[in-house]
Every structure is written in structure tokens, then in C-alpha cells.
Amino acid sequence: MDQPPSPLPEGQCRYILLVPGIKGQRCACAHFSHNQSTPGATCDCGHMACYHVKTAEQPAEKRELDLLKQRLEVVERQLDREQQGAFGSLVSRLGELEDRLDKTHDEATQEIRTSYRNINRVWQSVELLEQRCLQLHEAMRTESIRVTKIDHQMRSVADRQLELADADLGLEERLDSLETHHVPVSPASRASTPQFSHATQSSVPAEAKKPTPLPISVDRTPPAQGTSGPWTVHISLLPSSSQPFPFERDTNAYKRCLSRGLHRTVVVAGADSHSFCAAVSTAFDAVLKGRPWMPLKAKLCDATQLRGLPMLRPLDKKLVDAQYDLEFLREHCAVSDSSGNVESLYIAMRHDTLSWHFLRRSPRFLDGLETCWSFDPYLDPDDAQEDDDLACDSRPSAGHIMPQLSSLKRRASDATQTSVFGSASVGGEGENARKKMTIVSLSTIIDLPRRVEKV
Questions:
Q1: Is the pLDDT of residue 13 over 60?
Q2: Biased composition, Polar residues: where in the chain (predicted)?
Q3: At 390, is the pLDDT very low, low, confident or very high (cuts 50, 70, 90)?
């Protein structure tokens, strides 16, 4: 009895390929496919049926897909149960969120409106501040103009004081001349005197109206001296040519100038101008630095409060470029002793001035005087930082000492004396005219010397 033919395999081919260099590589046929063109049980891959697996294995992807479908069904059923139970709570929560959102929106809108109102108030305040700033700037400009006017008035007062002092000295000299030469006073001139005498007496204190002895005229004509050979003189270099008086000895200003070599005894080789100019330029070269200078006109003051103090004035323009020989200095500039010998001279730069800031940084000439450079309210600015920030051209000269305005005030009767001094005649100077008005000079305000500086 013939056996029925065995069924052909359906699985993949397990034939090991004989490829050089590759070991264990099997055929890539996935399932048996009977090749009808060739006799026998041969697959399309060319291998016999015996090399194929009988049954085809179910692929792993299909099994995993089935498991995934089952799990999805379980998850869907669970979600359906949860959605049916939590849908009501979700709706209520959404409602609460909407309410909170609306409330927050209203609050934000209210805050924005409040912020806009505050911004408007801020802008109004800014406008008010701008108006206030404009008013302050205008007030500052007005005050600056007023301060400038006050400064001009103070300078005018100082100039008028000097004019009054000069007029007083001129009157004394005229009185001395009249008494020395015994000039008779005419009745006509006496008739013109009462107005001047009355004005003078009304402005003089009671103690000043007492009769005082007339000054004795001294002949200061210098004796003849030789014009050859060296000679010595004490020379003071002043910070400014407009300084009316020298500094008082033993004051901070005098010590500062002394520590930087502005007061020296100079040896002059001869009486000619070249020797004098060379000696001065050599002695003060560290300060002058080649800048032009000139001697100052010095005259001893014989006023009651300033007796013996040199009054300094710049030379006349026609005398600035003259020859500074010994005779010229003795006649115009020098302070001489009773024998006519030149005792002291005062010089200053023609176009420049010396400030305390410059002198502080100048080379030291004498030691032991550095304590005088401490702060002085009459000499230094109120703020040391302000003094360092000033430009060189903006610094005041060391001789510019401005007193308080209240100390420069004088009575209205005193202010009228300028015109009286200029119009009074020589013949009208009687006994009452010799009672002088008490003049408060700038030197007494800042405690300047009342004696001649001597070595």
C-alpha cells in the first residue's frame, strides 16, 4: 500500500551558504515556495525542501500587536469609567477658574487706571519742578548780578578810601607848607572856609576835635653819594602791583612770602640800571621766571593811624620803561632813611600776579615756616578742594584780601568829603580845617603793618 506523499514544508530556509569569508550565513528565504519548473521538491531559492522548516513561525510583531490591542482596550474601558465619574468636578473647576480670571482681570484694569492717574500726578509734579527750577535760575542770575554790583561797590569804596587818604595827606602837606613859609590867610579865603570846616567837624568824633600839634616838616633831601661800588637794599616782591600796602611782619602772609624768598637783601654791583635789573632778576629768578617786573612807588604815610607805613602805587606809564638807576629809585621808588640812603624797595610783576596756590608749590627758600601755610580765613578759600579745582587764571592774587562789607561802610557825611577835598582852597585851611576826619584804611581792617619793613 502506497503511503501518501508528505506535505511540503512551509517555513523558512535553513541552508547554510558556502560563501568564502562568511561563516554561518543562512539563506534569506522566509517560506518555502515550490518551483514547478524543476522536478522534485525544490524551492524558488534553489534549495531542496529538506532545508526548509516544516511550519512557518508566527512573527513576533504580530504577537506584540495583539497584546497591544488588548491593553488599549483595557485602558479605554478604564478611561470611560474615570470620565463618567470626574466630569462633574471638572466642569465645576472650570467655572471657578473662569470666575477667578474675571476677578483678576478687573483688578488688573483697576490697577492700570490707578497707575495712569499716578503718572499724571508725577508729570504735574515734574512741570512744577521745572517751573521752580526756572525761578531758581532766574533768582540765581539776579543774585549773581547783585553780588557783582556789590563787588564793584566794594572796590569803589576801597578806591574812594585811598583817594580820601591821599587827599588827607595832600591837605596836611599843604598845611605844613603854609605853616613853614608863614603864608598869611586872606579874609576872602577865610569866607570860603566855614562850609568845609563845618562838614569836617560834623563827621569827626568828639575826641578827634581836640587841638593837636601840627606835624613838623622834615627835609628829606638825600645827601650826595658816590655812584660807584656795590650797595645793598632790602627788596620785597609783592604778589600784585595793585597791592596798596606791604604785609605786616610776623603775620601769616609775611611769613608765607618770606618762606618762598619774596623778601631778600640784594647786593647790587653798581648804581646803573643794568646792575640793578640784573641783581633783581637773578635774586628772584625762581619766582619771576623771566616775566617782566617793575619797581613800585613807595611813600611813607604820616596819617595818625598809618604813620610810618609805606603806601605803594604802580609807577606812571611814562616811568615804567625808564632806567632804574640809583637816582631814579631814590627819587620815585625807594624808602630811604634819614640820611637819604636807600633802605627798602618794593617790586611786582607788570602783567601777572602771584597766588597763594602758586607760592605754596614754589621751591622753599627758608625752612621752619611751613606752619604758616595752614588754613587762614583771610588768605585761603573756604574749601581746599575748590582751590585745587580753580584754573590758574581764575585764582586771586596773594595780595587780594577782601574784608567784610560791613567794615567798609561809612557815614553819609564822610562820603561827601571827596568833593570837599577836591574843591577846598589853600587859603581856606584855618585852625578848624586841620582837624582831620578819621579814615579807616584797608590796612587797619586786615591788620596790616604801621611801620616800615626793615631787615
A1: yes
A2: 189-204
A3: low
